[in-house]
Specification:
The protein is mainly alpha-helical. It has a domain at 335-396. It is 70% helix and 0% strand. The protein starts with a helix and ends with a helix. The model is unreliable at 10-40 (pLDDT under 50).
Length: 396
């Protein structure tokens, strides 16, 4: 799905960015309050949040069916999953919601969180069912409309996604503008979407920092698809200047720097970022271009992590692994297989890029033909994809 739109899923309900997917299929619940489940990173802005999570976890241990405790704790874990790039915390969030998880009609707060977690796990049909139930009882629920828009967009149903964005106008105009821009920019209206979102941001000087971060990152991404690198860098710089730790922003900015052959900047930016697979991949890509001594160790770490996800049957990271296999392991055939499997589930520009790059490396125009047809039919604008399509057709 459109990444900057996906981030808004949690922004509107939590005030925090997008959540990561669980590391395992089974939610984990500590057996007692003294059990250490994870050593949380420390630093400015984190300690107060961690104290609050510990307080909620302690109180919930004595009253596991207390919805008023469970919902904020689950939200806190979801926020931490995003902030630290550690997907295990989403599994903890699901465990917190266990008393209500399997109910046919859970409380609306749980229904929304369950839909979001299912959406993140690519269980789109179940997530849409949850959202339909929620909108039946809460027809003006902004988070439900936004999540629905995101799922429809990832499925390539851009017109339906666009319609789902409109109800957001009642609650958050910046959120609505970003939602509309995400859907419209994926269906032939990138220029207009960029202008609309830019105006909305200028007209919302009092917007939350998290909302501004998300809108700026979205503007940067649309600018990149239009080939406007200076605009993209300006928006990335503004987003970074907000001082909010955001895994996706760091990933997107690193990709931008790598595309411009500025690996040294990526290495400086991500030197200590090895906990997150997403950031470790970008760091390793930069190190490979620089001939860094740490590359061998980091490639081995990534190989182990991707192998573990395959053993679990986890298919959520096939796009990232495709890039790893192509650019760091020189395995274009395997990269193409993974990219095509990923494309059957997710149809974002970045997923299209993984397929086209792997097909080009493998010399397999036929494998990419359905995707190329899809790009033409949807009107998706992306100068990087256009270049790859041209190279494939010339090679074919």
């Amino acid at each position: 799905m459109n990444h900057f739109l996906r981030r808004a899923l949690v922004l509107s309900i939590l005030g925090w960015p997008w959540i990561s997917s669980p590391a395992t299929g089974e939610p984990f619940r500590p057996v007692d309050d003294n059990q250490v489940i994870e050593s949380l990173p420390t630093g400015a802005g984190r300690d107060a949040r961690q104290r609050e999570l510990r307080r909620l976890r302690s109180e919930l241990a004595d009253d596991a069916d207390n919805l008023d405790l469970a919902v904020p704790l689950a939200r806190g874990y979801i926020a931490l999953a995003r902030a630290e790039g550690d997907p295990r915390f989403q599994g903890y969030a699901q465990a917190v919601l266990a008393p209500w998880w399997d109910l046919p009609q859970p409380p609306p707060e749980v229904l929304m969180l369950r839909a979001t977690i299912r959406q993140n796990g690519h269980d789109f049909d179940s997530a849409l069912e949850d959202l339909e139930h929620l909108l039946t009882v809460r027809p003006r629920h902004p988070q439900a409309w936004l999540t629905r828009a995101v799922i429809l967009q990832v499925q390539g149903r851009h017109a339906e996604a666009y319609e789902s964005c409109w109800p957001l106008q009642r609650s958050n105009r910046l959120l609505a503008a970003a939602c509309l821009a995400g859907a419209a920019s994926s269906s032939g209206h990138a220029e207009g979407s960029y202008d609309m979102l830019h105006r909305a941001l200028l007209q919302a000087p009092g917007a939350r920092v998290e909302d501004r971060l998300w809108a700026l990152t979205g503007l940067a991404e649309i600018a990149l698809r239009l080939g406007r690198h200076e605009d993209a860098e300006r928006h990335f710089d503004a987003a970074l200047a907000l001082g909010v730790r955001d895994i996706y922003l760091l990933s997107a900015y690193s990709d931008f720097l790598l595309d411009l052959d500025r690996p040294q900047e990526v290495r400086r930016l991500l030197a200590e970022e090895t906990r997150s697979d997403t950031l470790l991949l970008r760091l390793s890509l930069a190190e490979s271009r620089l001939g860094a001594s740490e590359l061998k160790q980091h490639v081995s770490m990534l190989d182990d992590r991707f192998s573990e996800t395959q053993r679990r049957g986890d298919q959520l990271h096939q796009g990232a692994e495709s890039r790893f296999r192509l650019e760091l392991m020189d395995q274009p055939a395997e990269a193409l297989r993974l990219a095509l499997d990923n494309w059957r589930v997710q149809r974002e520009p970045v997923d299209a890029r993984r397929v086209l790059e792997a097909a080009l490396a493998e010399g397999d125009l036929e494998a990419a033909a359905p995707l190329i047809t899809w790009l033409s039919e949807t009107g998706l604008q992306d100068v990087r994809l256009d270049k790859l399509v041209q190279q494939l057709q010339e090679a074919g």
